[in-house]
Amino acid sequence: MATDTDPKPLVPMMGAEGGFAPDEEIAPFRISGLFCLLFGVLSIFSLIAYVMIAFPLIAIALGLFALRKWDGPRPSGVALAKIGLVLALGFGSCAAWMHQMRSRTLGSQAEYFAKQYIELLANDQIPIAAELRKDYVNRAPTHMPLKQHMESNEMGRNALDDLRGDSANLGIGGPDNVDAWVPAKPTRVYYNYGNYKAEVLLKDSNNPEAKKIIVLLKYDIDPDGNGQWLVEQCRQDMKKLVAEAVL
């Protein structure tokens, strides 16, 4: 018996009737979101060393790039980028705050140590000042008489004479004028070759005409966990002559 209805197809139809869109787009994958998460996790190392602050900065840049506008379906990797941004902002802000507080603390210590060093020179305590220019592992024991030890050999005597001459050229002005030396500007603390260093600039508040003294210090930590300051340079702050052009 013939009917007006069409016969049912034997093969299932692949279309909207079957639950599939014929022109369905595939969501793209933004690999920048994955790298943002990776650098966001690595941002924890910025709490240890200041140079590692580059990790959260890279993560933030990659995260902003991964979250750019898109057309069509939501790209994969956007959620990873958001997680990476949260980690980078959290660790990065904590690291910046910690390093700022550390710089302030070391700056205050460096100013105090620089003034103590100037006081030693003003009071002609040259042997002790000479020891403070050595690394802590090379310093003499506390029970050793420094003056007799350094004057017992020619090398020690020459070192004392050189330091005494340098002290005279600084123009400190004697023991009574030590308190007049005050910081001329905020102490600059920086990280160089695995060590913190400080640059202290002192001026004579009683004599504006006097030349400023610059003290360069290095900060080390001994095996006992104690901080040790080392005087690398102590000289007058003089402008260096620089040629305008090199032929």
Core attributes:
single chain; 247 residues; alpha+beta; Nuclear Transport Factor 2, Chain: A; 2 domains; 5-stranded antiparallel β-sheet; 40% helix; elongated
What does this 3D model show about the protein?
There is one protein chain. The model is unreliable at about 10-20 (pLDDT under 50). With about 250 residues, this protein is α+β, with helices and mostly antiparallel strands. It has six helices and five strands, in the order ααααααβββββ. The N and C termini lie far apart (about 110 Å). Helix 1 (about 30-40) packs antiparallel against helix 2 (about 55-65), helix 1 (about 30-40) runs parallel beside helix 3 (about 80-120) and helix 2 (about 55-65) runs antiparallel to helix 3. It is elongated. The protein folds into two domains: about 30-100; about 105-235, Nuclear Transport Factor 2, Chain: A. Strand 4 (about 215-220) and strand 5 (about 225-235) form a beta hairpin.
Overall number of structural domains: 2
Q: Under the CATH scheme, which class of the largest domain?
A: Alpha Beta
Query: How is the biggest beta sheet arranged?
Result: 5 strands, antiparallel
Helix coverage percent: 40-55%
The residue ranges in which pLDDT falls below 50 over 5 or more consecutive positions are 12-18
Number of strands: 5
Give the count of helical stretches: 6
Structural class: alpha+beta
What's the alpha carbon Rg, rounded to whole Å? Answer: 34 Å
Strand content bin: 5-15%
Helix-strand topology string: HHHHHHEEEEE
Q: Which architecture of the largest domain per CATH? A: Roll
CATH fold title of the largest domain: Nuclear Transport Factor 2, Chain: A
Euclidean distance between termini CA atoms:
109 Å
Mean pLDDT: 83
Inertia-based shape: elongated
Keywords: Membrane, Transmembrane, Transmembrane helix
Transmembrane segments: 34-67, 79-98
